[in-house]
Design a protein that fits this description.
Chains A, B: GO terms for molecular function: ATP binding; histidine-tRNA ligase activity. Chains A, B: Belongs to the class-II aminoacyl-tRNA synthetase family. Chains A, B: Residues 29-378 form the Aminoacyl-transfer RNA synthetases class-II family profile domain. Two copies of one chain form a homodimer. Chain A has 18 helices and 19 strands. The first copy, chain A, is 39% helix and 21% strand. In chain A, the strands form four sheets. An eight-stranded mixed beta sheet of chain A has the order 2-6-7-14-13-12-8-11. In chain A, strands 16-15-17-18-19 form a five-stranded mixed beta sheet. A three-stranded antiparallel beta sheet of chain A has the order 3-5-4. By secondary structure, chain A is an alpha+beta fold. The two termini of chain A are 54 Å apart. The relative contact order of chain A is 0.10. Chain A has helices at residues 24-42, 56-59, 91-101, 144-160, 175-185, 190-201, 203-215, 237-244, 251-262, 266-284, 342-345, 358-367, 389-401, 416-425, 436-441, 449-457, 462-465, 478-488, and strands at residues 21-22, 46-49, 53-55, 75-77, 83-86, 109-118, 130-139, 168-174, 218-220, 226-228, 292-294, 308-319, 325-336, 351-356, 379-381, 406-408, 430-433, 443-448, 470-474.
Chain lengths: 490, 490
């Protein structure tokens, strides 16, 4: 199978675009996934874990944000010449699972899934070829009550993770409204619709005037390049601009503006009705516009989804790599996609769901200092006499049995300085020392390393200087004294 | 890249050898991993998560239980023609990570890792091509104190998972003792050593007499085939047989028997000393032979490891697929492997570790009925009037805010029977009903579905028949009454 390049020594590095996660990077992520799973579960969703590998034919070409076919996927042939690939998201496997097991699954089927996905794309800063997704989807429910429920659940998830109300917002839009806008414009040609969609996507950057130019003859962009326009008549641009600028202070006013934008279009009216129904269902559950709002500027994903579309955004500011303030932006998104299962079964099965970008969310919480970073290390029992390793092991066993994280120094014990350096690197709060003299007298030395570090930093520190940083206690009081020191810093 | 076979409809199935996990299969595994991670952490181990994909050259050919080179691995070429592969275990990536980050990592480095690994092998019953591993390793500690610590930790893990003392045992052996036995036999040739190792591996099946035959001229096996022997003189077999049968009632007696088996061999004596030291370190921590024993019959992995080898076995009996009693067998194994990092750096770095087979362990606990199987489903709020969906959403929101798992029925509400069938399939304990009449009177109907099912099963059931299975309560008491019913079955 694989032909290995002969080389005297392999390079110790990850493949390009992959990375390792250490310590709290791992544990903070699993705590986050666990918290989200708790919310999903409370909403009646069931866990599903499919494998990382699928047949290429089952995965299909459904990568939401690309036009490319099998590009973007890691794929290979198995021994029977069948193509297999690593999943690129958790939605394509859901469609396969649902089609395969539909006779055994409840209908509607609410499921959640979390795990790594892989993309064979050019890696960039902060962009890796393996990352986590954390999805919840409802398959088999046509009602927008299912979409509303997912928006409420997304809001609950963010709050459970420690993002207070006001620091986030879930924005909701609807693809049918856009279809209505296209109808009102008199655009029915697929290629032209796609051009209009692409233009709408640029609204953020080019603004209202820019969108008018791009829908018409074209536009000179900032770099001096001329961008060809879609070639519509000026009045045809009106419904799009009305749509993009229809956001008002209240949901009711926004809905009115949208009704104007879609004009006589029936599909457009349906979209606005769906938005209105979602708003009223959410209000009934207590999710007002302080958490979930109708916002026609949500365009990401409008090309992929078929009905409601939603996006969660963090609204607090962070500093970017150049020290400039910016909003953190989107951390989750989703919507209704009614055609995914059809590929397998021929039947249209309505489905809606959300994907939370846990890695982005972790990055946001870290930048805000809301989660840990460093964690206190274990208590280190030093080794003064190699021959008495059993004594040290007994100490560490006692500490662990009391629920205290602890370890014996297992490197070469000859140089005691190295042991303290090791404790330092491990961010240990406490070191335990028992030399021959202590052993004889039935005592141990317990060093408060946190205080020790503070004293070393600033020896004249008044508030600390009278506190001892090392204690001699009877061997029998080891656990008690260590616990006492840990409690000081808990 | 991947050439997709054109077909009108893709097959909805996993690739051969892969499977999906549903509901409690997923949550029970993550609870198990979490519990094990807690023990690993208390012992001072740090989490590490590397990606599923490595370069083929970094992975190397270290699959412990096969002689095959790159077979057994899923591999492909990336756009730069470099070979990448899915990891087949968590040890090879550890070696790469340690070599890559050694300047930043503490020494010794204790790390744990858990996640899926992939093997491109023939799938069989209960044998999948993706499965979980859950490892802890100490890199950079030459002392057998590190091995002893891992055995103690393994014992703690099993007990934390609800396997009581007596239902498991951790068996310890040492590769150096075997090397001593080979020396005592006068076998120094590598090929012959490998033959002897293979014979030892068959001890379980062929017994003492069989081993003597296989080391000598050969043996007629049960199927009538003649298996060629290693061709040693009869007296050369003595040390091997002495080694394999050296297990005694106490560790001390076993150690004495092993000393006899290795004769004058220095490496053999070293191995016996290491076993003795591990036993004494473990005894000092309170891990006696009721949990961890020296057992020379542990031969699995002896070819791969370089020093201590250990294996955890469940000793309780289960029924196999044919209803016969058998012991469940091994659920974890590990040992010392000192050469893994050397491939990258040229330096020998001592390392030791353990891998817990979580999927096997889950299977064992399920067979013993020690973990769940089925879980109670959510409370289902039924939909009597589609136009009043907001009312039902409000109910479900109240229930969730009280911490109760609940959902609204999101299928087509027309047929009420379907809603109750759905609740049944979901294993719902309670259904909530609010028709127009109830709405008017400000009440809701709450159905105790567990009691309902019991009554349906046996209508004359005396102890139940006087208990109502449906209650009418004021709408304001919804949460209180549902909680009351749930408490009955908690």
């Amino acid at each position: 199978m694989a032909k290995v390049k002969k080389s005297p020594r392999p390079k110790a590095q990850t493949p390009k675009g992959f990375r390792d996660y250490f310590g709290t990077e791992v544990t903070e992520r699993s705590e986050m996934l666990r918290a989200i799973a708790g919310v999903y579960h409370r909403y009646g969703f069931e866990a599903l874990e499919s494998s990382g590998v699928e047949t290429v034919e089952a995965l299909g070409k459904f990568l939401p944000d690309v036009d490319r076919p099998n590009e973007g996927v890691f794929a290979w042939q198995d021994e029977d010449e069948n193509w297999m690939a690593l999943r690129y998201d958790l939605t394509a496997p859901l469609a396969r699972v649902y089609a395969e097991h539909r006779n055994d699954l409840p209908l509607p089927y609410r499921r959640f899934a979390m795990g790594p996905v892989w993309r064979n794309e050019k890696p960039g800063p902060g962009r890796y070829r393996q990352f986590y997704q954390c999805d919840a989807d409802t398959v088999g429910a046509a009602s927008v009550a299912a979409d509303a429920e997912i928006c409420a659940m997304l809001s609950d998830c963010l709050e459970v993770l420690g993002i207070p109300r006001g620091d986030y917002v879930v924005r909701v839009n609807n693809r049918k409204v856009l279809n209505g806008v296209l109808e009102a414009m008199g655009v029915s040609d697929d290629a032209q619709s796609a051009d209009v969609l692409r233009t709408i996507d640029k609204f953020d950057k080019v603004g209202e005037a820019g969108v008018r130019e791009l829908l018409g003859k074209g536009r000179l962009d900032a770099s001096g390049a001329y961008i060809d326009g879609v070639g519509l008549a000026p009045e045809q641009a009106e419904p799009v601009v009305a749509f993009l600028t229809s956001k008002r202070d209240s949901n009711e006013a926004t809905l009115d503006a949208l009704r104007d934008a879609v004009g006589e279009s029936q599909i457009g009216a349906e979209g606005v009705d769906e938005l209105a129904e979602m708003a009223s269902l959410l209000a009934a559950q207590g999710y007002g516009p302080d958490r979930i709002i109708i916002d026609p500027s949500v365009v990401r994903g409008l090309g992929y989804y078929t009905g409601p579309v939603f996006e969660a955004e963090l609204t607090f500011e962070i500093l970017d790599e150049k020290g400039r303030k910016r909003q953190f932006g989107s951390v989750a998104g989703g919507g209704r996609y009614d055609d995914l299962v059809k590929r397998f079964t021929g039947q249209v099965v309505p489905a809606t769901g959300v994907s939370i970008g846990v890695d982005r969310l972790l990055a946001a919480l870290r930048e805000k200092g809301r989660i840990g970073g460093t964690e206190q290390g274990p208590v280190v029992v030093t080794v003064m006499d190699k021959a008495r390793m059993a004594d040290y092991q007994a100490m560490v066993a006692e500490l662990r049995q009391a629920g205290i994280r602890a370890e014996v120094y297992l490197g070469n014990p000859k140089n005691f300085g190295n042991q303290l350096k090791y404790a330092d690197k491990r961010l240990s709060p406490v070191a335990v020392i028992e030399g021959g003299d202590e052993k004889e007298r039935g005592v141990v030395q317990i060093k408060d390393l946190i205080l020790g570090a503070k004293l070393a930093e600033n020896a004249t520190l008044d508030e600390w200087k009278d506190r001892p940083s090392q204690y001699e206690v009877p061997r029998g009081d080891l656990v008690k004294k260590v616990q006492e020191i840990l409690d000081l810093y808990a």
